[in-house]
Structures are given as C-alpha cells and as structure tokens.
Amino acid sequence: MTDNGVLKVAMPKGRIYKQASKLFRQAGLLIPEEFDESRRLIIPVPEANMEFIMAKPVDVPTYVEYGVADIGIVGKDVLMEENKDVYELLDLGIARCRMSVIGLPDWKPVINPRVATKYASVASQYFREQGQQVEVIKLNGSIELAPLIGLADRIVDMVETGQTLKENGLVEMETLFQVTSRLIANRVSYRLKNTAIQELCDRLGVAIAARV
Ligand code: PRP
C-alpha cells in the first residue's frame, strides 16, 4: 500500500456516486464537477487530498479489503452479500431502499421453491433462518423477470420507489432489512491514516445531521 498521504476512496460508479459526491460537497470537500459525467476511472481530488477509484459498486468492498483503497462507499446490500473484512464506519443515509422478498400476488407456497436473486448469500441465509428450504438461482440483473416468466417462484431484490414492482404486477411480501450506503475502511488504513479518516467522518457526520 503506497502512503503519500492521499486518501484513496473507492467510489461506486452510477447513481450512488451522484448522491455520494453531493454529500461530500455538502461536507465542504471540493469535488471537481468536471468528472461527474466522466468515464475516467481514477479521479484526482487534490483539494481534498483524495483520489477517487471509480469501481463497480459490488467490487468496492474488495478494493477496500485489499487496501488498494483506504476507504469506500458501498450499499448495505453489497456489504451484507460480500461479507468482506472491512470496518463499517458510518451510515451515510443516502441511496435509501430495502431488501425484500417479492412475488406475484397469487403466489402459493410450493415444496422446495426457487428464489432468484443477485444476493445469493443474503437470500440463502434468510430462508435458512426462516426454516424454509429453497433453491436459490443467481441472476445478475432484471431480477423481476424471473417470476414473470416462470424461472422462480419468488425473488429477493431491492425496492426503492416500488415502480419496477408496480409496472410488472409484482408485490412485496417481506422486508429483510433497510439499505443505505455506508462508509467503510481498510483495517490497516484506518490505523495509518486515522487522522484523515476521522476528520472525513466528522465532516460527513455534520453534513448528514444537517440534512435531516
Ligand atoms: C434495481 C433493483 C430493482 C429496482 C428497484 O435495479 O434491482 O429492479 O432497481 O427500484 P424501484 O423500486 O425504484 O423501481 P437496477 O435498476 O439497479 O437494475 P438491475 O435490474 O439490472 O439490477
């Protein structure tokens, strides 16, 4: 791990980035706007003594666990699924949604039902805890298709506005947990760059409190 004092931040590309960069700006950090729509993967943020590593959201915990990023921003959904060895420092309160069991309104229990999901580990654990035997089928997106075309009886997926469910005639059956984005840290970086990380946490904490 190189340590030139610059804090390396694994940022999730896409919609969480928009909310995260807004929060960073509200915390008083000078995040250059020129990169908001950019395809650049490493973004220098010299005014904040940071460097953003633009990662696929699901990979953020991996970059942080290996220490190539000191800290990262990631949804609780990914954190639960990936189960990496990182510190969870702060609930940023952004990208709020929930992890739910979803199905068709006329769904009826069957023996050994199939459950499609991007979150195979989360779903397996949930149904195991419920004492239900299910076959989990891992998909990578458009999970709502699965019950519509008969691949699975139910799905475990994220619900934000509920629009996707509504437009596809699906209903939420149970909520597993609420999801927001979290600030995570590499265990070694947390010690070596503690002052910088703590200062960032304090600034973000103030910005989060000011939002409510
Ligand atoms: C996510 C999620 C749902 C949808 C929920 O999918 O998997 O499909 O958003 O949002 P809503 O409640 O506001 O409709 P995403 O757009 O990330 O694409 P994906 O289907 O490829 O996972």
Automatic annotation (TrEMBL):
Its main location: cytoplasm. Pfam families: HisG. GO terms for biological process: L-histidine biosynthetic process. GO terms for molecular function: ATP binding; ATP phosphoribosyltransferase activity. It catalyses: 1-(5-phospho-beta-D-ribosyl)-ATP + diphosphate = 5-phospho-alpha-D-ribose 1-diphosphate + ATP. Keywords: Amino-acid biosynthesis, ATP-binding, Cytoplasm, Glycosyltransferase, Histidine biosynthesis, Nucleotide-binding, Transferase. The keyword ATP-binding applies. Its EC number is 2.4.2.17. GO terms for cellular component: cytoplasm. Residues 56-204 form the ATP phosphoribosyltransferase catalytic domain. It is found in: Cytoplasm. Pathway: Amino-acid biosynthesis; L-histidine biosynthesis; L-histidine from 5-phospho-alpha-D-ribose 1-diphosphate: step 1/9. Heteromultimer composed of HisG and HisZ subunits. NCBIfam families: hisG. Belongs to the ATP phosphoribosyltransferase family. Short subfamily. Lacks the C-terminal regulatory region which is replaced by HisZ. Catalyzes the condensation of ATP and 5-phosphoribose 1-diphosphate to form N'-(5'-phosphoribosyl)-ATP (PR-ATP). Has a crucial role in the pathway because the rate of histidine biosynthesis seems to be controlled primarily by regulation of HisG enzymatic activity. This is ATP phosphoribosyltransferase. It comes from Cohnella abietis. The lineage of its organism: Bacteria, Bacillati, Bacillota, Bacilli, Bacillales.
